[in-house]
Specification:
The chain is an alpha+beta fold and about 140 residues long. Helices cover about 40% and strands about 30% of the residues.
Length: about 140
């Protein structure tokens, strides 16, 4: 059996990575637009913290939303794509960002999901993994 050329394998992997990053940036742009249409103010894209990267940071009223953006075929797939450990890191990252900025310090930090699927409108799930919207109703 002939082994694949290592250079070809590496090039193919790099090409998939470039495509995935482009697709992710596009998804985040759509998600930000969707949130702005719902009255959110976008505070940051791809924020790197020592605890992890936050796809979108948005504010609406007294809520600071740490928004994870996922492109999947279904909402269930998007929800399942974020492991409990990642959710905990994102919550801590959001709290650290809020605690480090005086204007955000008193906001309630919430972990939201924007799920994007081909041919469908984005689906925003406030407080996606707790089953509540933290007292904030966001249709």
């Amino acid at each position: 059996m002939r082994r694949p050329d290592p250079g070809h394998v590496i090039a193919a992997r790099q090409a998939r990575g470039v495509q995935a990053r482009r697709s992710g940036r596009r998804a985040e742009a759509w998600a930000a637009l969707w949130l702005m249409l719902k009255g959110y103010r976008i505070l940051g894209f791809r924020l790197r913290t020592r605890l992890g990267e936050i796809d979108l940071l948005a504010q609406k009223g007294a809520v600071l939303a740490v928004v994870e953006v996922k492109s999947r075929l279904t909402l269930a797939d998007a929800l399942a794509a974020v492991a409990p450990e990642q959710r905990d890191r994102l919550r801590r990252a959001g709290a650290a960002v809020a605690g480090g900025r005086p204007r955000l310090k008193n906001l309630a930090v919430r972990l939201d999901l924007i799920a994007l699927a081909p041919g469908r409108l984005p689906q925003h799930r406030p407080d996606a993994w707790n089953g509540t919207a933290g007292g904030v109703h966001d249709p």
